[in-house]
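Hi all, long-time lurker, first post. I run a small reading group and we've been trying to get comfortable going from sequence to structure in the token notation. Rather than ask abstract questions, I figured I'd post a concrete chain and ask someone more experienced to write out its structure so we can walk through it together at our next meeting. Sequence below, copied exactly:
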Amino acid sequence: MEKKLFKGSVVLNPVPVVLITSKNSEGKDNVFTVAWTGTICTKPPMLSISIRPERLSYEYIKETMEFTVNLPTRRLTRETDYCGVRSGRTNDKIKEMGFTLKEGKEVKSSYIEECPVNIECKVKQIIPLGTHDLFLAEVLCSHIDSRLLDENEKIHFEWANLIAYSHGEYFPMPKEAIGSFGYSVAKKKTIERREIVKKKVTTESKSKTKRKTTTKKKKVKR
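-- Answer (accepted) --
Happy to help. Here is the structure in token form:
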């Protein structure tokens, strides 16, 4: 294949897009959008986010050394975009977007109830890089929508309708996997067993969706 050479720039795409909530020492909440985030360690569990020093959230997080990562759904795409282009210095984004804030368990920063996954973090180190500073944080706990768990307590992120960010655009997360970790070297019996479990889980998911839809219809009739 023919390839064109580009000057140095980060073309790593797609990436997760998340909403970061924080609270300053005066108890004021703020939210903004981050696309530069990632897992960096298993033990202790750690992740990173990159923030421009001029952002209001930068001040809040540096002051308290705490923040919460909220994973938005496809339904929250507009809200996610808005929180990335409007400043908390001029707009009350939480109120304008109608977010419901819940008190954190291990940190003072709140989490967004409408997001199915919320990750509470404690900053361990801040590394100045240039346009952005890198915040390295330990994950203290997470809040997961119970509807994303199967009977074995496995988390199915594909049920959450999460979104990703790629070169200036938002994309929905596919619901069907094209492989699983280690499948390239797995034995035939293992693959067959996984397929059986997958079909069972898919059936369970469809059943949950059907029950949820039926419940909504009943409420409307009332």
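A couple of things your group might point at:
The domain at 15-170 is CATH 2.30.110.10 (Pnp Oxidase; Chain A).
The helical segments are 56-64, 77-85, 93-97, 188-221.
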